[in-house]
Amino acid sequence: MIERTDVEHVARLTRLALTEAELERMREQLNSILAHLDTLRAVDTEGVEPTSHAVDVVNVMREDEVEPCFPQDAMLANAPDRSGELFRVPRILED
Amino acid sequence: MAVTPPGADVNPDRYEVVIGLEVHAQLRTRSKMFCGCPTRFGAPPNSQTCPVCQGMPGVLPVVNRRAVEFGIRTALAFHCRVNAACRFARKHYYYPDMPKNYQISQYEEPLAEDGFLEVDVDGSSRAIGIQRLHLEEDVGKLLHEGTIETAKASLVDFNRSGVPLMETVSRPELRSPEEAAAYLRAFRAIVVYLDVCDGNMEEGSLRCDANVSLRPRGAAELGTKVEIKNLNSFRNVERALKFEVARQTAALAVDERIVQETRLWDADREVTRSMRSKEYAHDYRYFPEPDLVPLQIDRRWVEEIRAELPELPRARRQRFVSRYGLSLSTSDILTHHGPLADYFEAAVTEFPDAKAVSNWILSEFLRVLAGGDERVLSMKVPPRNLAGLLRLIADGTISGKIAKDVFSTMVDTGEDAPTIVRREGLTQVADEAVLDGIIDAVMAANPKAIEDFKRGKTAAKKALVGQVMKATGGKANPALVDRLLEDKLSKIQT
Amino acid sequence: MYQPIHELTDAYRRADLTPTAVAEAYLARIDALDGRLGAYLTVVRDEALAAARESELRWRAGAPLGPLDGAPVALKDVLCTRGVRTTCGSKMLESFVPPYDATVVERLRAAGAVILGKTNMDEFAMGSSTEHSAFHPTRNPWDLARVPGGSSGGSAAAVAGGLAAGGFGSDTGGSIRQPAAFCGVVGMKPTYGRVSRYGLVALASSLDQVGPFARDVRDAALLLGAVAGHDRRDATCIQAPVPDYGAELSKGVAGLTLGLPDEYFIDGMDPDVERAMESRTRAAGFGAEVKRRIMLGTYALSAGYYDAYYGKAQSVRTLVRREFAAAFARVDLIVAPTTPNVAFKHGEKEDPLSMYLNDVFTIPGNLAGIPGISVPCGFSVTGLPIGLQVLGRPLDEPRLLRAAYAYEQATPWRSRRPELT
Predict the structure, then answer these.
(1) Which chains sit next to C, with 3 or more Cβ pairs under 8 A?
(2) In this structure, are B67 and B101 located in the same domain?
(3) Shared domain check, B471 and B403
(4) Cβ of A59 under 8 Å from any chain C Cβ?
(5) Is A55 within a domain?
(6) A21 domain-assigned
(7) Is C151 annotated in the active site?
(8) Distances (CA, A) of B127 to B116, B170, B220, B222, C313
């Protein structure tokens, strides 16, 4: 069972600015979804290796070769704000 | 939170200092960790990026093989176990220098674990444990508009984003700020020897964070640790740690609780400052990177890399002592940086008087070098030319004093010593007949010195030698002048 | 407007039709109908006509680039297109214009395909109805009151409604097969790693695969063939050579063993639950479903819960793979319904969990990384299409397509059209 404080903690981690109403609804919905996931937890997986990839491929690497970069303008084009050649972002507050 | 000033009246021996270092080294690959953009430092902002290293939606990373090779090379030099299976993981946090909101790093199954690094402090040597070594990607560089306190916005340059980083975590086995600085120096020497990192702390190629705690002497449990960031020079490491140890000591003396937090070293004010204290611990939510497949490190590859490992600084230092008969301290300076040691060895093969060669390198060579790049200087004065100069001193062609001037000219023009000596007519005057005449003239012109000498003032002889050297433009063989003058003076006395 | 691509290109070859005329006709139909259907988010008229004209020159010169040259296709807005905004159905990326093409897009351009535009989807592919687009919902051409399925609902509706001859989507838990079933078209999720994911904005990287929507199985084979194959920019991409899928179709199904698993016939299929549509707030950034999934994912990975959820799920995934491997030791193909129900009405699945459960028949294929195809297999009493799903062994797309083709040729379903005017 997820408590309200858990929801608030997770919301903080996600940086989603949820409203009071959203937090409460989220608590209810997450609990109903996680309750469903309990069927998963009931499965016996003792000694079963986890699968993190759908293909059994290993050691895919590239050689250390330089390729052409993208033009500076093209890479800055999507910036919400810029200052000359730099991306401009709201000042960061340490947390 | 107020900063507690260091130096409070406590018995420093009550506590044991426990320090662990995390060192991030940028690897000297040509291209980035997960894309083909170049890693060159100093390019115009955001001119060395692509969708991959800017973390645009839809992109995928592909591992740079050389970065893995460099990681293995370093792991072997640190006596680590290179794991047969390793994988990458996503480390989640939010910061504008990292647009994906996760950093590709390694968590479980890092590249290598369980090694050690030998560190010398006060003449004794200790092996400091290395817990793990893993690969990750660097993030972009943040600049502040104006000062950090007043800035309204931050500016981001992503050229650095995606440069391969190797993080090496020591065990908390360092027992003093001096030892921590020595660890970092040894670390730097090794990665530079291995040619995996340029070791340039100013440009951020090598960065260091420290964990510091104190515990009552004899206690088994570790105290509350404080993480210090921004230790970007050897000097800063030592100073910041000294400050922090003093701060914690003072706090403990008045029964103040040490807060687990991250502090930033402010090099200008020489204090550590608390970064906004965390209400909750880091929760990086690591999970295996699904876009990269696991690596199974082939043992043969590891053995190939091991076979190509260069001789490391400590081994080389030992060899310099035993083979060339140099002192430990001289060997230490010569071997600290690979190219300097190479230069020495190349010069010694041409001119086998190792002491003479090392004296010249430690005095003139390092003086002219003045902290610059030996590679540049050794192009102007190749080892063979230094040997040529030393031969001219040894066979009496020029004096040691003249040799210094010749060396300066060699640095300026790139010519070899015999060419300069010949052109500028610097060959020593060692012809007795010539010197006889000059000495007679000097003696005739300085009757007072002769009188002084007769009354037992030996310093007067030195003045006469100086006059003879002056008269020959410094080219007279000083030993010969001395002998001839001695002869003449002794004749006057009798 | 309902001709499959292979018939269009036959007509190009005979000079009965030109790519330009076909592109113009499609664009006109989009103008006329998409206001009601809502299949597209962005239509690239000028680029499409320019590409069609170039295709026309190649056909006239007798040198087409291949069986897709001049084929008008629609791309789910989750595939990055150079110079054309790629929104993922989210306000967050409303003005994102990628400076690069996804590998799939690059290969389609190289094959001469005419890209008509970018299609609607659930925001960041999180959904099964295309109601969760931040821009507008997409409607099912068979019944405008119903959803086209999702998350690739825009591409499915475009192909079903004659607003594109073929399309591409992405399938993480059924996001191609389910909307294909709901819209009465062919939809295919290839083997994981068969098609490059480079330029596909990820939902779940180890499950996502790009795949085609088509009028018929032959077109699906051609569309897949054009984009499949190794890509050095995707480390999870498989190296295996790409068969000529079109040539495989005629090999027939003699000797193939089919399995019908009991697990795919569950209680409570098609629960007829209707609820009033609750008003939804969408702040500037993420919509409600996206926020929910971000919260859920963060929770499952946060300190102390990893083993219970993420780790557990990865172990269960191993068991799912083993079960499929065991099944494919006995049979060549598994046949099952694509979805537990037909297209539902807009607003009907307001409860997130019931929406997630819409994936129960499709998501095991993603977990196992195996290929799956949905082909039309009839209509409900209400006149809505029903999909049949065929699942196969990894990289066994040829057998999958052969079986689907044989079924399609033996049944009359693909001749029925939605009444869209």
Answers:
(1) A, B
(2) yes
(3) no
(4) no
(5) no
(6) yes
(7) yes
(8) 6, 11, 20, 20, 42
Does B318 lie in the same domain as B280? Answer: no
Q: How many CB pairs under 8 A join A and B?
A: 130
Contact B290 C204 (CB under 8 A): yes
Superfamily of domain C5-263+333-415: Amidase signature (AS) domain (3.90.1300.10)
Contact status of C352 with chain A (Cβ, < 8 Å)? yes
Q: Do C301 and B287 touch (CB under 8 A)?
A: yes
Mutation target vs A (from C316, C322, C360, C395; most A CBs, 10 A cutoff): C316
Q: Render each residue's pLDDT in chain C as its tens digit; 421 residues.
A: 789 999 999 999 999 999 999 999 999 999 999 999 999 999 999 999 999 999 999 999 999 999 999 999 999 999 999 999 999 999 999 999 999 999 999 999 999 999 999 999 999 999 999 999 999 999 999 999 999 999 999 999 999 999 999 999 999 999 999 999 999 999 999 999 999 999 999 999 999 999 999 999 999 999 999 999 999 999 999 999 999 999 999 898 888 888 887 776 655 445 322 222 222 222 347 888 888 888 888 888 887 888 888 999 999 999 999 999 999 999 999 999 999 899 999 998 888 888 888 888 999 999 999 999 999 999 998 899 999 999 999 999 999 999 999 999 999 988 889 988 6
Residues 6+ apart with CB under 8 A from C32: none
Is residue C280 classed as helix, strand or coil in its secondary structure? coil
Q: Do A52 and C206 touch (CB under 8 A)?
A: yes
**CA geometry: angle at B71 spanning B241 and B190, to 5°?**
55
Q: Are residues B206 and B227 in the same domain?
A: yes
Structure tokens belonging to residue C384? 């809505």
> C95 an active-site residue?
no
**Is C76 labeled as catalytic in the residue annotation?**
yes
Q: What residues contact B342, with CB distance under 8 A and at least 6 apart? A: none
> Using CB atoms, which residue from C88, C102, C235 is nearest to B62?
C235
A24 vs chain C: nearest CA distance in angstroms? 12
The whole-angstrom distance between residue B364's C-alpha and the CA centroid of its chain comes to 20
Shortest alpha-carbon distance between residue B275 and chain A (Å):
7
Nearest-by-Cβ selection for C319 from A43, A52, A75: A43
- Kindly determine whether residue A16 and residue C294, on different chains, have CB atoms separated by under 8 Å: yes
- Model ipTM? 0.92
Cβ <8 Å between A65 and B31: yes
d(CA C172, CA B342): 58
Query: Of these residues, C175, C196, C349, C374, which one is catalytic?
Result: C175
* Residue B35 and residue B62 in contact, taking contact as beta carbons nearer than 8 Å: yes
Which member of C55, C129, C133, C151 is catalytic? C151
Name the residue facing A86 among B68, B143, B276 (closest C-beta).
B143
Would you say B252 and B214 are in contact if contact means Cβ atoms under 8 Å apart? yes
Q: Number of folded domains in chain B?
A: 3
Do B218 and B84 reside in the same domain of the chain? yes
Inter-residue contact C59 to C23 (CB < 8 Å): no
The C-alpha atoms of residue B17 and residue B238 are separated, in whole angstroms, by 13
What domain range is B397 assigned to? Answer: 313-424
